[in-house]
Amino acid sequence: MSLYRQAQGPSLRALAIAAAVALIVGGLVGYLIGRETAPEPTLVELVTEAREELRPALSALELVGIEYSEALRGDEVIAETEYDAARSQAQLAADTLASASELRALDPRAVEAAEARVREVAELVERRVEERRLRGPLGEARVALAALTGQGIEEDATGG
Asked: Whole-angstrom Cα distance, residue 65 to residue 125?
């Protein structure tokens, strides 16, 4: 019997572990180098991106007008599904606008004014006011949001 063991090459398992570690480290180093050399976005690009994030709020307000007009006759709900849709779209517009931190940093007064108008629309929808009483505030909210997004409103400011 021999007192010495014969030297064996590295096991297949050890080679696989070494290869996996090398792959992970290489990927991490590549990612970090790529991030360091990536161009910084310009102010124009940042503002454009922030404005784009508000476009769903503008679309939501448009849907509020459509759904609300189909949901009520006078102050009576005749189509519960459409009324619920109008309520949820008003809430979506408010939530989207509340997350506009980048635009708030650039123009806090304009964002606050738009928020006040959108809140008013949501409150009027909750109170189930007649459609004609919603048109003016809805149009004002749409104009305020359109100004924040940098786009115009194709329809008039009365919400129609």
From this structure: 10
Give the right CATH number for 43-149 from 1.10.357.10, 3.30.420.40, 3.30.70.20, 1.20.120.660.
Answer: 1.20.120.660
- Residue-range domain boundaries for the chain: 9-38, 43-149
pLDDT given for residue 28 in this prediction: 85
Q: DSSP state, 159?
A: -
Q: Are 97 and 122 in contact (CB under 8 A)?
A: no
Residue 145 burial (CB < 10 Å; 0-12/13-18/19+)? buried
Tally of residues, the chain: 160
**pTM, full prediction:** 0.67
**Band of the pLDDT at 95, cuts 50, 70, 90?**
very high
Q: In 3D, which of 120, 145, 146, 144 has the Cα closest to residue 134?
A: 120
